[in-house]
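User: My instructor asked us to take a sequence, write out its structure as tokens, and then describe one feature of it. I'm not sure where to start. Here is the sequence I was given:
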Amino acid sequence: MTPKEELAHIDESIKVLEERRAALFAASLAAPAEEKIVDDFFAEMCADRPRHPSMFPLEIHGIAWEKGDLFYRFYKNTELVKVRPCAPEHENKTFLGLYLGDFTTGPSARFDRESGLLIIGPGMSNPAFWIPSLKKLVFGMESWWSKIETPEDLKQITDEDINSVWYVQALKAMEKT
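Assistant: Let's start with the prediction itself. The structure tokens for your sequence are:
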């Protein structure tokens, strides 16, 4: 058997197994509670679509650009924020910034099996801040930040502020176990 024939045989075996897997999840939906494989919500998802939707090699017939804005939410009236970038070169300093809105951090790509198109569009979004003194755009995911609503809010963001955030406390607690 040639490698190409062997690969075709493996692909067919996977297809048969995936069909059997989907049938088992479909049967779980009708089964009594003590015989269910997983919750019905998950069984419905697994019964409807194959686990490995992208079989290789893929034959791409073209690239399509999905319509979508780079800014998911753009503020016409920018808001003042204080931003403490996490990058070490900023030495834990807090900077005055402008909250521009939620901006796409990168592209997304998906393959449409029916049309054979690779579809490129805006990906995940994140708050975006312009820091004039750094002449740099900084995202929320790479900083600690908060809006400035009163003159008292102009204080530096400290390690104590960061350590008092609930998810930082939860991560530290998990780290100890």
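For the description part of your assignment, you could build on this observation: Residues 63-167 form one domain. Try explaining in your own words what that tells you about the chain.
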